[in-house]
Design brief:
It is a single chain. By secondary structure, this protein is mostly helical. It folds into 3 domains: 4-126, no CATH class; 142-255, no CATH class; 262-475, no CATH class. The chain has helices at residues 12-20, 26-32, 36-46, 50-63, 70-78, 84-88, 92-105, 113-126, 141-164, 171-192, 195-216, 226-229, 266-292, 295-304, 307-311, 315-330, 348-382, 386-425, 439-443, 446-475; strands at residues 248-250, 339-340, 343-344, 490-492. A two-stranded antiparallel ribbon has the order 1-4. The relative contact order is 0.09.
Length: 494
């Protein structure tokens, strides 16, 4: 009987625990996992899940095929057969073709047709596939609550941005602006929190906040306040900077009469302010991501998540594999073909997923670069007018609210949010990998992503707070409101 150390789908920590239980060979493993009760007992005693025990048993059954040794094990793994169940789900001709192709790939002599047929037939005597009976989808109250909360967060952020950039007059323009501003929020909400629960959360939060903000102007400065007049208003006896009238003049406030160029015109600000807010969000995200997704932080976090032990690589091999992947992600050829010990680190599915990730990253950094250009141009054209800084404050605040809300949800359902994030950017199933056999999730285990996400969220919130404080100081915003009216500083003429 092959020893259990030949199992590839078992982590080293469980090997030690199995040996302490007196389980040294695959034959003993098969004996102590023969019935559902024994499998559950074994899982409880070694601290594993029932699914993990079933995976060990599945591979152990394959190792006990006739004339099966280490070379044949490598061959079937290369062919995509990690256990007996995968053989049972394959017809004989496909089974032969995949084994012969795998033999050519690893440059060994393929087994004879008789041997391959014997394995295929023997697999059907050792185990049978479980009956596939349709099972009704169970109720998922936790998932419904999660979608409700995510929808509420998306709707709240959309309402904040819509209220900040909606003109008061004429009414039809205000309605059109709200529709335009909330349409992206609705699209994001449908992707992130589909179903009735997500719709209720998004629409309820959005309508409530819009009614509060636009109806009463409690938090958001309405469009007939200095947000849209560049910080000045027609006041009797007061003229814009440097112009005297009845012994009173204003200082530090830019005129809305056209002296500051087209970017200070009301129509131009109506278009530019939302662009500045969105650009602020993107630039803050870009800065935060750059802090963490670099070789130095990745190496630090991998050491904390014990990626070397999980992957079975030495520290030097771990660095070689990780640096090769990160290099292809940012600047390399994008084939993700790094090898360790003469063997590719990633399989075809993993490399295909990383190419998808590379495309998402490229799009993200292009968007960040475009957003930075928008901020620079808007700052220069506006000459630092009040509306520019208020728009930056609005964007930073909306980003901070979204991150805090998602962070609170992640405390109770991190896995669901992680799955949701991948669904937004990748095709279904292309991002799911087996942590027992596939290196990508061994190099970057769950602990890596959890800690990185927490730190990333914290940095984003700190950056958002800093930008908001700086923007409010530059504009002289009222401490009682989100972007309230700016007092008009005046002094008597000498």
């Amino acid at each position: 009987m092959p020893p259990i150390i030949e199992l590839n789908r078992i982590e080293p920590v469980y090997l030690d625990r199995l040996e302490k239980q007196g389980i040294f060979t695959t034959g003993i493993l098969l004996e102590v996992s023969e019935t559902p009760t024994r499998r559950q007992y074994l899982a409880d005693h070694v601290g594993a899940s029932l699914a993990e025990v079933l995976a060990w048993r599945d591979e152990a059954l394959m190792l006990n095929l006739a004339a099966f040794g280490p070379t044949e094990h490598v061959l079937l793994m290369q062919a995509g057969f990690p256990g007996l169940e995968s053989i049972l789900r394959t017809d004989l001709e496909t089974f032969k073709a995949r084994i012969q192709r795998a033999a050519r790939e690893i440059k060994i002599e393929p087994p004879s047709d008789l041997t391959i047929t014997g394995w295929w037939e023997q697999a059907r005597t050792l185990e049978t596939l479980p009956d596939q009976q349709p099972v009704p989808a169970p109720a998922d109250p936790a998932g419904a609550v999660l979608r409700l909360l995510i929808g509420a967060i998306v709707g709240s952020v959309g309402a904040v941005l819509a209220a900040a950039f909606t003109p008061a007059d004429p009414p039809l323009a205000a309605i059109a602006a709200v529709v335009v501003a909330m349409a992206p929020a609705g699209a994001v909400g449908r992707l992130a929190a589909g179903g009735v629960a997500g719709f209720v959360g998004l629409s309820g939060a959005a309508f409530t906040l819009l009614a509060l903000f636009l109806g009463r102007g409690v938090i958001i400065a309405l469009p007939n306040t200095p947000l849209w007049r560049g910080g000045s208003a027609p006041v009797r006896g007061v003229r814009s900077r440097g112009v005297r009238s009845r012994g009173v003049r204003s200082r530090g406030v830019r005129s809305s009469t056209g002296y500051d160029g087209p970017m200070n015109a009301a129509a131009a600000r109506w278009l530019a302010a939302p662009a500045v807010a969105v650009a602020t969000c993107l630039v803050l995200l870009g800065v935060a991501v750059a802090v963490f997704f670099n070789p130095w932080f990745v190496a630090f976090e991998q050491s904390r998540s014990d990626a070397a032990a999980v992957s079975g690589y030495t520290p030097d091999e771990l660095r070689t594999a990780t640096d090769g992947i990160l290099g292809d992600l940012y600047l390399g050829s994008g084939n993700f073909g790094v090898t360790v010990r003469g063997t590719p680190v990633l399989d075809d599915r993993e490399r295909a997923h990383m190419r998808d990730v590379r495309g998402v990253f490229a799009g993200f950094w292009l968007a960040v670069a475009a957003a930075a250009a928008v901020l620079v141009v808007a700052r220069l054209r506006s000459r630092g007018a009040a509306w520019f800084w208020r728009a930056m404050a609005a964007g930073a605040t909306a980003l901070g609210i979204a991150v805090i809300g998602l962070g609170l949800l992640a405390i109770v359902s991190f896995d669901a949010l992680f799955e949701l994030f991948h669904r937004l950017f990748f095709a279904g199933g292309t991002y799911l990998f087996d942590p027992r056999t596939e290196r990508l999730v061994q190099l970057f285990p769950d602990a890596f992503w959890f800690e990185t996400s927490v730190l990333l969220a914290g940095v984003i919130v700190l950056l958002a707070i800093a930008v908001r404080l700086i923007a409010r100081r530059r504009v002289g915003g009222s401490p009682g409101g989100f972007a309230g009216p700016t007092p008009l500083p005046v002094e008597r003429a000498r």
